[in-house]
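Sequence, please.
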């Protein structure tokens, strides 16, 4: 067993899809909520055999795929909506899917047709001075990711505070931008459960990802780490018994993990500042000073981490843009 069993909670059934080969995530978690019809929270990615695995786990919980009334997607990343179209097809009937308005484009056919390496991406890569060999690796990885999901065009939007009610549950959507602009958590008030998507994860610190597609944002001044920290404060006052995350094991100490996240990000900012203090360089060349080890496939994530922390340092007056480039050079103050 990859993770310890989830606690027994009436009318909540956790399905942990193993993510072999993705050790940092361990599992993709899907939750069936309600007595029937049920609400599905996330779907997991479209790995080979994943649909059959979900159907088997639903059956063990006494749920048929035709019992699914709706699917709520916590955010528009493929490991959370990848199976949605397959589940709809297997059910043979309409299943309404919901996603926050800010992430709707990510799951759409239009979003799939937009190449990751658009003009904005090319400008960004020149700004950070990423070598061409690394760009090609990241392109290949993102191309592979598209095979793990199908686009969703017939999807309903939700906003902060949206409520979903059925027999045995009352869910409220809490907009928690940061990991993505449209990330949400779902709070089940009766049993005090927070379904946290990728906003809260036990074994890793979630990535507040930079946004290259700035024209898609409601707020042109959006900064993912700033939004993420505000979103942590937004959920810190909730009366939570269990946190059921999008990956890995459940959590019982929400306040403690939030405190841990805040310390982590402060330490990461200090490392970025220290790297700049040593020498002003393009962001790509700060990686070795900030991270002790970066897997080959995670170079893009490393650049993203550096940039979102740098944005906060600039906000605080601890760093500034020294040369807009390309490549752009920053310096510590």
């Amino acid at each position: 067993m990859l993770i310890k069993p989830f606690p027994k909670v009436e009318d909540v059934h956790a399905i942990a899809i193993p993510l072999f080969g993705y050790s940092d995530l361990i599992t993709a978690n899907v939750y069936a909520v309600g007595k029937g019809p049920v609400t599905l929270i996330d779907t997991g990615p479209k790995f080979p055999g994943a649909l059959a695995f979900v159907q088997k786990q639903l059956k063990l919980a006494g749920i048929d795929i035709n019992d699914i009334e709706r699917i709520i997607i916590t955010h528009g990343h493929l490991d959370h909506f990848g199976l949605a179209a397959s589940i709809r097809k297997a059910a043979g009937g309409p299943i309404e899917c919901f996603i926050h308005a800010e992430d709707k484009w990510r799951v759409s056919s239009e979003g799939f047709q937009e190449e990751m390496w658009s003009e904005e991406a090319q400008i960004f890569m020149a700004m950070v001075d990423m070598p061409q060999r690394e760009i090609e690796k990241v392109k290949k990885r993102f191309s592979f990711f598209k095979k793990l999901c199908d686009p969703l065009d017939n999807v309903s939007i939700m906003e902060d505070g949206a409520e979903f009610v059925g027999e045995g549950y009352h869910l409220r959507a809490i907009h928690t931008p940061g990991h993505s602009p449209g990330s949400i958590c779902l709070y089940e008030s009766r049993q005090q459960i927070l379904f946290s998507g990728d906003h809260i994860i036990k074994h890793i610190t979630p990535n507040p990802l930079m946004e290259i597609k700035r024209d898609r944002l409601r707020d042109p001044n959006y900064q993912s780490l700033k939004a993420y920290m505000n979103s942590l404060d937004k959920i810190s006052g909730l009366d939570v018994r269990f946190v059921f995350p999008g990956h890995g094991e459940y959590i019982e100490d929400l306040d403690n993990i939030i405190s841990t996240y805040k310390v982590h990000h402060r330490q990461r900012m200090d490392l970025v500042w220290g790297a700049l203090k040593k020498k002003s360089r393009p962001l790509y060349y700060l990686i070795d000073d900030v991270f002790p080890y970066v897997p080959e496939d995670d170079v893009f994530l490393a650049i993203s981490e550096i940039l979102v922390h740098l944005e906060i340092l600039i906000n605080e007056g601890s760093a500034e843009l020294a040369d807009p480039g390309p490549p752009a050079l920053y310096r510590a103050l």
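Residues 191 and 241 are 8 Å apart (CA to CA).
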